[in-house]
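Practice problem: Xanthine dehydrogenase family protein molybdopterin-binding subunit
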Amino acid sequence: MTETAGRTAAEHESARPETAGPRTGAPEGVAHDAPERFVGKAVRRKEDPRFLTGRGRFLEDRNLAGQVYAHFVRASVAHARITGIDTAEARSVPGVVAVFTADDLEGVRPIPLIRQPPDPGVPLPELRTLASGTVRWVGEPVAVVLAESPEAAADGAEAVQVSYDPLPAVCLVEDAIADDAPTLHEGFDDNCCFRTSYTGGDAEGAFATATHRVRRRMVNHRVAPFVMEPRGMIAAYDRYEQAMDVWITTQRPHHTRWFIGQVLDMPEHLIRVDAGDVGGAFGAKEPMYPDEAAVAFAARALGRPVKWVEERAESFLATTHGRDHVADLEVAFDGDGVISAMRGRILGNMGAYLYPNSSGTIIGRTGPLLPQSYAFDSIDVEIVGVFTNTTPTGPYRGAGRPEATYYTERLIDEVAAELGLDPAEVRRRNYIPAGEFPWQTPTGLEYDSGDYAAALQTALDEIDYDGVRALQRNGTDDGRLIGVGIASYVEIGGVTPSSVAAMEGSPGLWESAAVTVHPSGKVNISMGTCGHGQGHETTFAQIAADTLRIPYDDITIAYGNTETSPFGFGTFGSRSAAVGGTAVLRACEKVVTKARRWAAELLEADERDIEQVDGAYQVSGVPTSRIRFADLASKTLMLMKPLADGEEPGLDAIAYFDPPNYTFSSGTHACVVEVDPLTGRVEVSDFVAVDDCGTVINPLVADGQIHGGVAQGISQALYERIVYDADGQPMTSSLMDYTVPTAAQTPELRTARAVSASPVNPIGVKGIGESGAIGSTPAVANAVLDALRPAGVRDLDMPFTPERVWAALQKG
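Answer key — structure tokens:
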């Protein structure tokens, strides 16, 4: 079924949820007649008052007594041997406390890999905390200066003199795999990081018998994850305890603790990591960086707290970039537009190194998802990771999924153009039927649920597809070119089942939740996930309120501190609601089970006769024989009797969830653009996003995620692009030349929902955090090319800037 969004908040408040919350309900004996349910309701976010009144706990708000400030000296050339580093002048700068280079980092281990690349048998070059011997990208850390003030640290860094012997640089993946390409890493034969293939069915046979083929080379260009709060870290080392406290902007606090322990050879129990409030991440704060290892080392070496906050210009050089693929793909199809196979190769630009827990699997997510929402059963696509003299790449909202969607959706439109068919009709003819789930793709994925045709139809209706096509045929009075773009998508969410993670060379990605019930009846839930804008404090409380049947405002959610939160794997890959949310549900169910057991004893009844109703527990059919949840919480802690064997005081519980499979969100985005042929300017005049994220926990939060993701996807299509010159010098290293749209360039967006609950978890949720960025970019791209096709333009790469579009129109 579908739900058209766009209702007011008040209408959302009064609307009954489409889904009745967690589908497993509650444990046996729990009543289902509670007066209010929260899952599915658009309650306002618990976090917002704190942020709106300036009470957020961001890294820049924290300072420690006696702290010094770090400033990095970064490589100014893309590829060179370091022939000398002179730090004498820097050490004499007033306020400078220390300068460290690679030679000073005795005992510091190489940066470890958490996730292995898709081809784990291939040896990889070591990544060091500070460059030693050779630099391989502009921005690689060479030295770190510590000083009493940020200004003194910057002055000291300016005074460090690094001498280089330049080497040839290579920045483009196709150049990097050429036979005569300069090799980045000594001792390696070429610049190949890894190779892997995704094969299934009989692609060779399908192409041999196909009546039609279409092939395209497509570039999914490099972009920067532009977050409101840049990366930063404070590390404080206690020499007496030999322990370290770390405050850091991260998506994965427990992995950060592991990382620091590995690099500094410290026991993890002596490291405490606190993420605090994180001002956005988009994947860029998932990797663990050499910068963070250097800050931790400096804190231990100096015995003083060290604070480092990345500057905005620095972030363009040092924080991982996203995307940067070149795909050469071909599909085989018949005269009706029914696709039988796909084949080709995708080159992924890894940058200068493979980063600890991100790069190798990002392009690895692209290959499995190439079939998208379509039923063709044969594929043969090679995926190649390539080293270049550029900033390392890593996860950026969607992380491999937007790229797969972009390639396949571009090809679907090319099939339609080749046969003169409507692009919407070609999609209908190729969709996996709604009744065929679970569906096994030729790349080995098992899709859980969906109704792709229904989502498409909703998008077409919302955009007035027939009306826009009529306007396109008739033309506009001012000569503007009209284009309509459609993009259907399927994405991997609920990342990752441990069984799959092991095959990817990654530790298993289960999740945890610990419920503490205070004597007052108030509940605190500590999570292994770590929010950075997703509304976790709200959505997890909604799940808990429904399960515990207590007021939503009586529940607080905590995360991000390794000292107080149970071990977990953090927030990425649209996993928090599906995996972390289910851990919350399971933990709360344990609380209910314990509460029923205690209520039976206190009410002198059989446990089977105890039911949960209106925030209390009562004997079934005897309303006067009841005990409030708060009283139960108090009495089970302040016991007036000895504990029996196996009996536990209180109602606290902890639970874990390891999903049996991924979840698979899906949807269709539709876009209308107007192109000015005189200037090449593209304007998005209408956009609708229809998304199936399974059970919707909070419509307001879901819509917010879609709005943000769509804005980023449109921005990649029209504005953003990281550019290097032939020598590896970045040409887009500030907001003067890297275009980030404002609200004025962001179009009005309408959302609608197609709901098919996932059978993978008991809540039925799939995930929504990345969907907006997955469907939007190809929708805009297809719309632009649809507008330009009548003028003779058959192919054009993003971003569709006025200059590019105008030049393409001139060529025709």
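Discussion: The longest helix spans residues 576-602. Students who identified this feature from the tokens alone can consider the problem solved.
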